[in-house]
Amino acid sequence: MESSLLRHGSLALLVAQDTALVLLMRYSRQRSGSMYISSTAVCSMEVMKLSVCFLMLLCGEAHGSFGMLVFMIRKEVLGRPKEVAKLALPALLYLIQNNLLYFALSHLQATPYKVTYNLKILTSAFFSVTLLGQRLGRRRWISLVVLFLGVTIVQTDNPKNELSRHHSGLGSQTLGFVAVGGAAITSGFSGVYQQRILQSCKTDMWIRNVQMGVTSVTLGFLCTFLKDRQAIADGGFFQGYSRLVWVVVSLQALGGLNVAFILKYADNILKGFAAAFSTIASCIIEMVLFQFRPSPLFLFGSALINIAAYFYNTPATKRPTKCDASALHSV
Prior knowledge:
By secondary structure, this protein is mostly helical. It has helices at residues 2-28, 38-59, 66-78, 81-86, 88-105, 110-116, 119-132, 138-156, 170-199, 205-235, 243-265, 268-289, 296-312, 322-329.
């Protein structure tokens, strides 16, 4: 009974978190007034994630001792530069991915974004086969073909909706779709690359997250000041921040912890349902609040994508490996 409650509770939590994050991120990029710099939001998110990892280490492996926590950081981060350097590539790719997602939601409604972002299943599968030598069964290959067909239909359709006040027109939508495609590619590669690293060592999960977090924060601030140093000098690092922006940053930072919770208590069937429910919920909310009007062709393509995602995540004969879970649910 308790296990069932945890599974369904984790499903509801994932749907709510994923739906709220995309819709609020989209709204935060369309509101009037001073606009925040998206690269600083990504940096803030990385700092928040790293802080959570420190807290989990303090409460877990360090047994509440700050001295032990400092010792572990010196040993596992400063004392293992080669291990940390291995994570530089996926850390950089995740930074690029998150910046692309902010850019995409500046040009697309939440529903087309969520539907198209399912391309990460296709890219994860491709890199799993090429980098890890994983074999896909007939069911998954068919699912990938259906997924590609659905994404093609969605991208070629032009649903009637109110575009951004700041960015409008077909060219803007095209840029948004290109950004989502780039995010899907970086998500697939970085997830599989990181899994390949994890398979070669037995480092504690939170230690590994701290190693990557330190790298991500360092690269994030470096890239931010190289790209937006003039804007930051003019208006400050936190210009345009509001309660809404901090909610978006917090939701994005805690998303990884939510996925970890799902992986512990749920399975890929529930995750497949969660992805479909989240897309449907986003579509309904946008129709009510943001005048999003999907065409029948758009709905058909979306249905194909959700069906493909569901069947890809529910193997017919055996449970997916950890590789599958990591590759398909990295964010």
